[in-house]
Amino acid sequence: MSEINFTSSDLTQIRREKLNALQAEGQDPFQISRYDVTARCHDVVLRFGEWEGQSKSLAGRIMSKRDMGRAFFCDLQDGSGRLQLYLKVDDLGPDNFARFKKMDIGDIVGVAGQVFRTRRGEISLHVTEITLLSKSLHPLPEKYHGLTDTDLRYRQRYVDLIMNPACRRVFQLRTRLVSGIRAYFDALGYLEVDTPVLGTILGGATARPFTTRHNALDLDMFLRIATELPLKRLVVGGFERVYEIGRLFRNEGMSTKHNPEFTTIEFYEAYTDCEGIMGRTEGLISGLAQDILGTTDITYQGDAISLRLPFRRQSMAEAVLERTGVDFLAIPTPTDAGAREASLRAGVEGRDTLSWGEWLYECFEQKVEGSLAQPTFITQYPVEVSPLAKRCRDDPRLTDRFELFITRREMANGFSELNDPIDQRERFVRQAALRAAGDEEACMLDEDFLTALEYGLPPTGGCGLGIDRLVMLLTDSASIRDVILFPTMKPLDP
User: Fold this and answer.
1) DSSP labels for 218-231?
2) Alpha carbon of residue 99 to chain centroid
3) What pLDDT is stored for residue 6 in this prediction?
4) For 72-95, what is each residue's pLDDT tens digit?
């Protein structure tokens, strides 16, 4: 007789018919509201010496069934792991055993029985009772290949989590990492705070926003692109060490490194500077790697990366000189022609109207950034691209700012905060002019923030660090979508 090949829709229909039959018999699994669980799969294995022979009840999803005639072996999966089940018709009785045989892989069950070890040495549960708690109406992906369609993995994360232990481990590690970040800053006396997600003024970064409408106030509003300005207001108010872990939203391109909504931590500390904040940042990352992975020597996508302290430090001008031979510090300003000519000779592209500092930044982005695999703090950014950072005392063209690069991508951005309200106003005015000329990423002029600075912001250092990218680094994940439970996806055709 030829083999019958069922389509996915056929299998779904068969499962619906099984559910209808159960409901007709008064055994609707969706009417069950509770099941008393006394153990989890991982605990049974971990505590076998103590629990052998004892009765335990577990609940989870059937992941496999192996028919031995009058007995079955199954794999049960809960949130802690998997455990083998052994079920015999003599223990369950003919009727219950027949009901069990109709259960499908993917069904959620409650089981009770004795903890034992099989003749082959596998720790298992000898089941004497089984209850169907939820009927799975869709067949799971084939067990040996799992959910391999990358797009489908992101769209149906729940199936990815069911099938792929590596996926579950990534998000378990992510939770540990966020907890570790909180522990690090709490131990340093920082206060965790919440600031608004909706605002009427953009600030704290250069990015294109998402807009929305507040009906009650009849106002257009923006989803925040940064938490910087509210947090610095709190430092003005006397909270000398603050941090916020939260979602940011930027209406920009998507890539393996970018998602429109992402998670960061921003932290601010009074009476320290850029150098002090670099110390906090490298201490956090190196410490998390040691605590979570047990080492500071990791591999990311084939590259050996050392997170041992201290991280390398290099100014932007030094890095550009090293890679291109162009010495920007020797190019006279305020005329920008020399910077333009030197950049073009180095093979860097840019608008003719770029300033000295913008040409320096373009040279760095185009010629240097892609080479920074090992942890490197790039310091002394031009004023033109750093509207919120304090100027360097020995060269007012530059700011006391850093970005941390690891695996050729930006991981953190920080600086000695600009606390001169007069200088800050001038930079806001320049940004506002750029915005009026069509630059949607330029900052807006925030009068209330300027008022706060006029009350007095102490010398302060601050930093924003991308949590998603840090999780990517510590889990060896190639794409940011691998570390966000529900990444932004284009809707499928209906």
Assistant:
1) TEEEEE-S-SHHHH
2) 43
3) 61
4) 999 999 999 999 999 999 999 999
Q: Cβ(193)–Cβ(186) under 8 Å?
A: no
For the chain, give me the number of helices (H) and strands (E)? 16, 20
The string of pLDDT tens digits covering residues 256-309 is 999 999 999 999 999 999 999 999 999 999 999 999 999 999 999 999 999 999
Comparing CA positions, the residue from 130, 126, 77, 82 lying closest to residue 106 is 77
DSSP class of residue 42 equals H
Nearest CA to 248 among 268, 267, 222, 280?
A: 222
pLDDT in tens, 323-379: 999 999 999 876 789 999 999 999 999 999 899 999 999 999 999 999 999 999 999
How far apart (Å, rounded) are the C-alpha atoms in residues 114 and 324? 71
Q: How confident is the model at residue 3 (pLDDT cuts 50, 70, 90)?
A: very low
Burial class of residue 492 (count of CB atoms within 10 Å of its CB; 0-12, 13-18, 19+): exposed
Sign of the dihedral through C-alpha 110, 112, 118, 124: positive
SS3 410: strand
Identity (one letter) of the amino acid at 26?
A: G
Burial state string for 358-396 with b = 16 or more CB within 10 A and e = fewer than 16: bbbbbbbebbbbeebbbbbbbbbbbbbbbbbbbbbeeee
Residue 431 has pLDDT above 90, yes or no: no
Cβ–Cβ under 8 Å, residues 195 and 244: yes
- Beta-bridged to residue 431, according to DSSP, are none
350 three-state secondary structure? coil
Sheet with 261-270, side-by-side order of all strands: 191-192, 241-249, 261-270, 460-466, 409-416, 401-406, 376-379, 312-315
| pLDDT tens, residue by residue, 191-207 | 999 999 999 998 888 88
Tokens of residue 324, six digits: 């291109």
Residue type, 197: V
Preceding omega of 487 cis (within 30 degrees of 0): no
**Hunting for tokens 């009026």 — which residue is that?**
436
- For the chain, the straight-line distance linking the first and the last C-alpha, in angstroms and rounded, comes to 39
CA 355 to CA 275: how far, in whole Å? 27
